[in-house]
């Protein structure tokens, strides 16, 4: 459905304004679809994001600073999210002996298994409807990357190891 019809706004200042509104609206739409799908696995979007990052680091640990740096939603509270994942036995925390303020975070076998179950269920594939081809998805990725022309990435924070 066209953005004009979704938000009941037939006129935009220009195509740039329309594109920004369309991006914001579509982001919310995708997040709602993912949140609904992840609920069946007892996870929130930010929790899934942390597990995804930790799986990418596995078997190496991560720090909270590294998680914050790599999170998709920079406004999320990484420490609280890790607390909840630890309660669910999906991650572990180890205090660094050399620096007691530094904490290494690792995904557990249960966390890895949950991510595998999610992938096997197809829930991750269903977030973006199959209405676009792989070539269109590639074009979309290129355009989204082009929007973020200024590279704000910073190197990851090393762990205690």
TrEMBL record:
A Pfam family: MarR_2
InterPro entries in the cross-refs: HTH_MarR-typ, MarR/SlyA-like, WH-like_DNA-bd_sf, WH_DNA-bd_sf
Top-level taxon of origin: Bacteria
Domain HTH marR-type, first and last residues per copy: 13-149
Name listed for the protein in its UniProt record: MarR family transcriptional regulator
Organism: Hymenobacter ruricola
